[in-house]
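JOB MANIFEST
job_type = single_chain_structure
chain_count = 1
residues = 69
[input]
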Amino acid sequence: MFKIFAIVFLLLSFSGCATVQPWQRESLADPIMIFNENPIDEGIQQHFIEHREGATGATGAQSGGCGCG
């Protein structure tokens, strides 16, 4: 029973690994793949949170934190 469970676990864990070729990245970069429905509203909300909290970071964007970025 343990061997069957181990084999199934290994097969499932390896099934999620895939190499993406450069010509396949175009379809993965499609806007339909974005999780949030409105990225402009997400950016406005993030800007508001950065100023309310007085800190920026962990979003990939760089600014001075003074509200001008």
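[summary]
The chain has a mean pLDDT of 75.
Helices lie at 2-15, 25-28, 39-53.
exit_status = 0
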